[in-house]
Amino acid sequence: MEVPEWLSGSLQVLSRADIRYVLLTLVLYITSVSIYAVRWIVVLRKVGVKLRFRDSFAAYLASILVNNITPSARAGGELMRIAYAYIKTGTPMIKLLNTVAFERICESVPVISLAAIAIFEALVAGDKPIGIIVEFFLIVAGVAIGVKYWDKILAIAARKLGFGDNLDSSVSIKRLVKDRSLFIVTVVLSSIVWILDVLRLYTAALAVGWEAPPLRFALASVMYLVVGLLAVTPGGIGIVEGGLTAVFIALGASPSVALATVMIERLISYGFASLIGLLVIIAGGGPQAWTLLRSRWRQTGFTPR
């Protein structure tokens, strides 16, 4: 079977990749996951929950696997993370859910900042970033609505799922957001992760010999997030690769170099992360967490296979 010319070219570029930059890309990814684990520990301790670093790290790896095998716009992974922490600590799942929602609100700050940087960079380059501008305002509106109505939505959902007795107003989203020190620390940690994500795309590009202004990868990082959230395939497979390759080509890479860059990134964030996540689920509290998720999902009328 003949290999398409565009794929053959990408494989040739990949075969000449600088292994030092590939390893650096891997290190940046592991560092990002570690910071995510620390961030959750900080938030959990604020609400009186003690979770060990290794358990928080493992919970994130397990959630990455679930994200990579389900078309759930990352929701499935968050549920796995919550269930994993529940197995390890016995903390009411509603409290854990609130901490995850708070993290997402804090994470919107660097995302909005990255989108603003991407818009500025595109305008300077003479482009018309209509899609990013629309995304920018949608994120801002989504965060505002989430902060205002999350507690009410959660209360309704909790009663339907039989969690009503576990609602705790002392850890509501509004109270967590009003905690200035917690908010600042969480935003700073989230910002560091997003900077590392931009650098990860940059080092993946350097690995195949593509040198472009680092700010270009801020735009790519934002679009990477959007494509991943909108993808309807498990882990966004196929859609994410195609979308990110198109973004890199638009940013000046040749098709073969763009695809080779995406291959390195996805080999790490999809292949490596899924493998480690699977090992965590097998060796850790994953089976119990999955059983718990199945029992809760049955109450919604949907049972995952």
Approximately how much helix is present in the residues?
over 70%
The coarse silhouette is: globular
Low-confidence stretches: 300-305
Secondary-structure element pattern, one letter each: HHHHHHHHHHHH
Transmembrane segments: 20-42, 130-150, 182-202, 214-232, 244-264, 270-293
Subcellular location: Cell membrane
Family: Belongs to the UPF0104 family.
Protein name: TIGR00374 family protein
What does this structure look like?
It is a multi-pass membrane protein. This is TIGR00374 family protein. With 305 residues, the protein is mostly helical. It has one domain. The protein contains twelve helices and no strands. It has helices at residues 5-15, 19-46, 53-69, 75-89, 93-124, 130-161, 173-178, 180-207, 214-230, 239-250, 255-283, 286-298. Helix 2 (19-46) packs across helix 3 (53-69), helix 3 (53-69) runs antiparallel to helix 4 and helix 3 (53-69) packs across helix 11. The longest helix is centred in the middle third of the chain and has 32 residues, at 93-124. The radius of gyration is 20 Å and the shape is globular. The chain starts with a helix and ends in a 7-residue tail after the last helix. The model is unreliable at 300-305 (pLDDT under 50).
Break the fold down into its secondary structure elements and pairings.
Blueprint: H1 5-15, H2 19-46, H3 53-69, H4 75-89, H5 93-124, H6 130-161, H7 173-178, H8 180-207, H9 214-230, H10 239-250, H11 255-283, H12 286-298
Helix pairs in contact: 1-11, 2-3, 2-5, 2-8, 2-11, 3-4, 3-11, 4-5, 4-12, 5-6, 5-8, 5-9, 8-9, 8-11, 9-10, 10-11
Pfam families: LPG_synthase_TM (PF03706)
Subcellular location: Cell membrane
Keywords: Cell membrane, Membrane, Transmembrane, Transmembrane helix
